[in-house]
UniProtKB/TrEMBL annotation, chain A:
It comes from Salipaludibacillus keqinensis. Residues 48-57 have a biased composition (Polar residues). Keywords: Signal. The keyword Zinc-finger does not apply. Residues 1-20 form the signal peptide. It holds the Pfam family TctC. Residues 25-65 are annotated as: Disordered. Belongs to the UPF0065 (bug) family. Residues 28-44 have a biased composition (Acidic residues). This is Tricarboxylic transporter.
From TrEMBL, chain B:
Residues 20-437 form the DUF112 domain. Keywords: Membrane, Transmembrane, Transmembrane helix. PANTHER family: TRICARBOXYLIC TRANSPORT PROTEIN. This is Transporter. It comes from the Bacteria. It comes from Salipaludibacillus keqinensis. The chain crosses the membrane at residues 20-39, 51-74, 110-132, 138-159, 166-184, 204-223, 317-341, 353-376, 388-406, 412-445, 470-489. InterPro entries: DUF112_TM.
Length: 362, 497
């Protein structure tokens, strides 16, 4: 409790100080646009950007309006959970002087939400939740915007792929699965929680390719959600399921389903206890991250990016965040804007390769 | 015996003042949200997540469950009074509920809906309590091929929903299937029937079609008939005669059980449950031909079924940790945020949550009945609203509801288009029910057919090799053939005579 209070005072102090700074040095450009609507504010920020570029340390920027905080999907999904959880932690820990207002803009696997954000080029907001689909959806040509159109703010958390079988399955390891596919591709059906060519499919096909099996030979059966895929594995309708570690916690802990492989670099204790090994431990040099981070509109002002990447770094130090991470089974994976941006480009290459091999991209 | 001890333990939790308060808040909020056309339980639950944060998980889930079954309970009101389904699960209720209201028997229809909802809800809680752990196992035996067969069976109802012309019914059904296929294909990522429009990539939400074809279509028809202006609908009596009670009791019983089992199947849920209940009763009833014209059994069956199904949908969530529908997916998310992982271990780890929520459902259902019955005369005042205002109000509510689905103005145009389609269908005597039924079942049928074929590497035998899917397909064939056989026999007899 005392710990919390101290944190609060610290946060309040910092924001108070920066507020003082802002009012002290920020007067001239703000004056003519006192009524500030978003556009006007963005312009003044863009101006500020140019004059500040030389200093590099521009820590005096702060959001003035409530932040539109977008999950480009329906309520209840991964993006939505990330947006609502971070908004709550930011509010409770008083990390920003304004509110983060969660919004759902569902549709077209995210493309409708992205189109909305893309319309705010040069502005410091809206911010939105992003994960591999921002690379995958454009690759399959259903969004006119791709990850390079947006400004990476910070990568926050990650989950990993997990390969599950029934407890009495003949497959002891993922190597067994790939060998069976090598022998007769039709004999093994692999269920996953997302569409063909999306995360789960890519993750399994990528591992298969690394092992030496033709990625197109993975008989992938798409279900609408990891839960549905696991139900079908429980009922014996598919032989193997690939989904996110987080989604499978209940089934793995109860022993209903047996994990045989997962895609992290380092072993995870709970899964090791359940008898599973990473792909790397099984001799397949392969990792797959189901990362989730925050991105902003195209050409977001540099000091806004800095402000938010620092804010998220602070957020991840709080005990409120720690508690949520534990409840939701997330794994912290902070990357600042620059690291995140490089990471996204690497991901793009990986996905493009795998999709080409499966035959979904030419 | 064990179940009773556990239930007592559950009541200990659910009878705490705090829990009682939140059950009450939940069911009231749910009823109101349910009554407003279009605003469904999913958006309501998503809004509840921040409210439940920091609450004791048992209380939080009690509140959210209350919102969910409260919405299904309240959804029948606008179906009956306005022909505008409040939630997707109550579309079937409007088939006979609205004609009853037009005949001046709105009070009776609402009362039947309330009683049936109560009984359906209660039956499902009993089922949830005694056989939930066993049912989890049964539910997983439904794989893609079984779902395909179930949907085929469901689609045969098109025949009985077609009223006068089977051909027109089939045309409506084919149109419904086509609409359901719009959007991105899960298997290949190909966009179908989207005309290059990004807004259509996710397909068209079922409620947009239902509100357009039913509510707006009706509004347009009423606008055309200027003459009807003077006629004012009355509420009529709330009381049921002994004869009526005897008439609706068996359908309520049957539909409650059918609805519960439909709800247990992941992916089926309240909407499909209510349709199956309605068609089953229509097929069984001797006066089946009066269904759709204001038969009280046509209100009782879907209402019992959809409430039972909403209870049943908790089975896969609580026992397997797998959400069976969009609504329970949001509930799962909320539970995770509260630090609870639903699944086989939950019964042991957090019995307070499991039994607390079950006990609270008993209490919630009683609250709903007590609240809803006296409110009927009040709510029905809506019928006394001058026609010009009422029609405008329906349009406004439909628009708000549709906009609330995804906050996309494009959907508003869609609902108007479907309103015009509904109007044209009514003008040329095309039945609307087969369109709606085919739209719900079509997409699930297609998706599962292709999944099954993907698993079997293209071998069609997968549909007859599995006993459950074979049984369902035979039932589907019989339900198509039996009426034909009966007709042939009648024809031969007549010739003899």
């Amino acid at each position: 409790m005392r710990h919390l209070c101290k944190r609060f005072i610290y946060a309040a102090g910092v924001s108070g100080m920066s507020f003082a700074l802002l009012t002290a040095c920020g007067e001239p450009p703000d004056d003519p646009t006192e009524e500030n609507n978003n556009e006007a504010e963005a312009e003044s920020n863009a101006d500020g950007n140019q004059s500040n570029d030389t200093n590099e340390v521009a820590s005096d920027w702060e959001p003035e309006n409530d932040v539109d905080y977008i999950a480009p999907a329906d309520a209840g999904g991964g993006w939505d959970t990330l947006i609502r959880t971070t908004a709550q932690v930011i509010d409770e820990e008083d990390l920003a002087p304004v509110n983060f207002a969660p919004q759902n803009i569902p549709g077209s696997g995210g493309a409708i939400g992205w189109a909305e954000v893309a319309g705010h080029a040069g502005e410091p907001q809206p911010l939105f939740a992003a994960s591999p689909p921002i690379i995958l959806v454009p690759l399959t040509e259903t969004s006119q915007y791709d990850h390079t159109d947006f400004t990476p703010v910070a990568n926050l958390i990650t989950d990993y792929s997990i390969v599950l079988v029934q407890p009495d399955s003949e497959f002891e390891s993922v190597v067994d699965v790939f060998e069976a596919i090598e022998e007769d591709p039709q004999s093994v059906s692999v269920g996953g929680g997302s569409a063909a060519g999306s995360m789960d499919h890519i993750s399994m096909a990528g591992a298969a390719a690394e092992f030496g099996v033709n990625a197109a030979d993975v008989n992938y059966v798409p279900f609408s959600g990891g839960g549905e895929a696991m139900t079908n594995l429980l009922g014996g309708h598919v032989d193997v399921v690939i989904t996110g570690v987080g989604e499978s916690t209940g089934q793995v802990e109860s022993g209903e389903l047996r994990p045989i492989a997962y895609s992290s670099e380092e072993p995870i204790e709970v899964l090791a206890d359940a008898g599973a090994e990473t792909f790397i431990e099984q001799g397949i040099d392969y990792t797959f991250d189901i990362w989730r981070g925050i991105m902003g509109p195209p050409d977001m002002p540099q000091e806004a990016v800095q402000y938010y990447e620092n804010m998220y770094a602070d957020m991840m130090e709080t005990s409120t965040w720690e508690g949520q991470v534990e409840n939701l089974g997330w794994i912290n994976n902070y990357q600042n804007s620059e690291e995140f941006s490089e990471f996204l480009d690497e991901q793009f290459e990986l996905f493009e390769d795998v999709l080409t091999e499966i035959g979904l991209v030419e | 015996m064990d179940a009773f001890e556990n239930l007592l333990y559950g009541f200990e939790i659910a009878l705490q003042p705090e829990a009682l308060l939140f059950v009450l808040i939940g069911v009231v909020a749910g009823t109101v949200i349910g009554m407003l056309p279009g605003l469904g339980p999913i958006s309501a639950l998503a809004l509840m997540i921040p409210i439940t944060y920091g609450m004791d998980p048992a209380i939080g889930i009690i509140l959210m469950a209350g919102v969910y079954y409260g919405a299904i309970f309240g959804g029948s009101t606008s179906s009956i009074l306005l022909n505008a389904p409040g939630v997707a699960g109550t579309v079937a209720t409007s088939f006979d509920g609205y004609p009853l209201a037009k005949q001046g028997k709105a009070g009776k229809a609402l009362a039947i809906a309330a009683y049936s909802s109560f009984i359906g809800g209660t039956v499902s809680i009993v089922g949830l309590m005694f056989i939930a752990p066993l049912l989890g196992r049964v539910a997983v035996s439904f794989g893609p091929s079984e779902y395909f067969a179930l949907m085929v069976f469901g689609l045969t109802a098109v025949v009985s929903l077609s009223e006068k012309s089977l051909i027109k019914g089939l045309i409506a059904a084919v149109f419904g299937v086509m609409v359901s296929l719009m959007g991105m294909d899960l298997q290949t990522g190909t966009a179908r029937y989207t005309f290059g429009n990004i807004n259509l990539l996710d397909g068209i939400d079922f409620l947009i079609v239902a509100l357009g074809v039913f509510a707006l279509g009706e509004v347009f028809v009423l606008l055309k008939k200027r003459s009807g202006a003077a006629k004012q609908n009355s509420l009529g009596s709330l009381k049921l005669t002994k004869q009526e009670v005897r008439e609706i009791a068996p359908p309520i019983g049957r539909s409650s059980i059918l609805g519960f089992f439909t709800g247990v199947l992941p992916g089926a849920g309240a909407t499909i449950g209510s349709f199956l209940g309605y068609t089953m009763e229509k097929n069984i009833a001797k006066d089946g031909n009066t269904f759709g014209k204001g038969n009280i059994k046509g209100v009782a069956a879907p209402e019992a079924a959809n409430n039972a199904a909403s209870g049943g949908s908790f089975v896969p969530l609580l026992t397997l940790g797998v959400p069976g529908s969009g609504t329970t997916a949001v509930l799962l998310g909320a539970l995770l945020v509260m630090g609870i992982t639903p699944g086989p271990l939950m019964l042991e780890d957090r019995p307070d949550v499991f039994w607390g929520v079950i006990a609270s459902m008993y209490i919630g259902n009683i609250f709903l009945l007590i609240l809803n019955l006296p409110l009927i005369p009040l709510i029905s005042k809506i019928l006394n609203v001058p026609r010009a205002m009422l029609l405008s109000l329906i349009i406004v509510f439909c628009m708000i509801g549709v906009y609330g689905l995804s906050f996309n103005p494009f959907d508003l145009m869609l609902v108007l288009i479907f309103g015009l389609i509904g109007f044209a269908m009514r003008m040329y005597n095309f039945p609307a029910a087969p369109l709606i039924l085919a739209m719900i079942l079509g997409a699930i049928m297609e998706e599962n057919m292709r999944r099954a074929l993907q698993i079997s590497s293209g071998d069609w035998m997968i549909f007859v090799d599995k006993p459950i899917s074979l049984t369902l397909l035979i039932m589907a064939a019989l339900s198509l053939l039996i009426p034909l056989v009966i007709r042939v026999i009648k024809f031969i007899n007549r010739k003899k005579a």
